[in-house]
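Task 17 of the worksheet. Students: predict the tertiary structure of the chain below and write it out as C-alpha cells. Keep your answer in the requested format; marks are given for formatting as well as content.
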Amino acid sequence: MRSAAAHHRPRASRWAWCTDPLFLLTGAVLLCTLLIEPRLGAGKLWDSAQLVGYLTFALLLYGFLDTGLGPRQRLHRHFGYIATLLLAVHGPGLLLTDPQTLHYLTWDAPGYMFAGLAALLLLLLLVGAALPIGRKTLHSGQPDFRAWHQTLGISIVLLALWHILGSSFYLSGIEPVLLAGLTMTVLLLALYRVRVRAGARYGTLLAPALAGGVFLALKWLPGG
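Model answer:
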C-alpha cells in the first residue's frame, strides 16, 4: 500500500525537462555553435563526433553546479563517468572519420590539440582520484578533497575551452566569445557556491540528448 506522503506527492510535469538545468546548459553550449551558420556541417560521422565533444563539455560545466552533495553524490560521480566515456569516443570518432587527423597527434600539432589531450588525461585522473580508494590514498580529509577536486576540474574545463576555441569547429563571429563567457559565468557561479539540480533520475540525460538531436537535424536536413 502506498504511503500517504507518496499518495499526495505532486506529479512532475511531462514537460519538466524543458526547465532542467542540464538541458538548459547543454542547449546554451550548442546554441553558441548555431547562431551564425546553423546549417554548416562536415558529414554525419564528423558532426556526430564533434557533437559528442560539445556534450562532454556541457556535462563538465554542469558538474560545477550540481556538485553531488549528500544523496546526489552518486549521480554526480556517474555523470563524471559518462563525461569520460564521451570524451573517449570524441577523439577516436574523429580519427575514424578522417584519418588525416592523425597529424594532430604528432609533436608539431597546434597547442589546442595538446590542450585537449591534457584535458582527457586530467579527467581520467580526476575520476580515478574520486573513487573511494583514491580519496583515501591521496587526500587527508573532505576539505582537502573538495579543494583539489574543484581546482583540477577548473583546469580541465579551461583546457577543454582552449581546445574548442582553438579548433573553432562550428564557431565564428561572436560565438567563441559567447561560449567563453558562458564558461566563465559557470565557473564564477561555482566559486560563489551557487548550486542547481537536474532531475534526480538518470533519465535527465535524455534532455541533452534531445538538444543534440536538434543540433544534428540542423546539420543533416537537405540543403545543409
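Marker's comment: Residues 142-167 form the longest helix (26 residues). Residues 64 and 190 are 6 Å apart (CA to CA).
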